Amino acid sequence: MWRCSIRVYRNFSSEALARRVDSRLQGWVEALLEGRMGLTINREKTRVVNLAGRKTSFDFLGFTFRYDRDLKGRGHRYLYVGPSRKAMRKERTALKEMTGPRQCFVPLPELIRRLNRHLRGWANYFRWGHPRRSFRAINHHVRERLETHVNRRSQRPFHLPEGQTYYAHFARMGLVRL
């Protein structure tokens, strides 16, 4: 199995980075990828990114890589790795299909079981890095979709058990929390 590592150059100016990634190094990487590994490089999409600049990021395999300021207000920055906007949009679309009007016939425990399986797989892929904000957004979206789903299921309105919230009800039914 081949492992891909992404090396981020943070402390270099763009000129120093350009000197560091010269044509010889680029040729060596291309020969390694195309010759030894048998891969094809898409020359239109391939580029060298200097992440030291402000608001500079790149997306790769569903992840976004960028330097963010420290969350506790200290003077340094950290490498943020989390789900990209496109990956989040695709996940919301998948969840919408799983809880849409065509799924009203599915019993709620079965629907939650399917959602849990899907969410665990998605979370295992994106667990690497700093996905907390994205996971929180997906949790919120799932609960909103399930609330809409149970209220749309029948001509008779859905009534929660006495003294319970939707959050507690779905948690009691086994909905996984990312």
What do these coordinates show?
The chain has 178 residues and is mainly α. It folds into two domains: 1-50, no CATH class; 85-172, no CATH class. Helix content is 46%, strand content 10%. It is built from six helices and three strands. Strands 1-2-3 form a three-stranded antiparallel sheet. Strand 1 and strand 2 (63-69) form a beta hairpin. Helix 3 (85-98) packs parallel to helix 5 (132-152). The longest helix has 21 residues, at 132-152. The model has no long low-confidence stretch (mean pLDDT 85).
Largest sheet: 3 strands, antiparallel
Report the order of strands and helices. Answer: HHEEEHHHH
The N- and C-terminal alpha carbons lie at a distance of 29 Å
User: What's the overall geometry?
Assistant: elongated
Helix content: 40-55%
* Strand content range: 5-15%
Number of domains: 2
What is the SS-derived class? mainly alpha
Please tell me the overall pLDDT: 85
Give me the number of helical elements: 6
Number of strands: 3
Strands side by side in the biggest sheet: 1-2-3
- Radius of gyration (CA) equals 22 Å
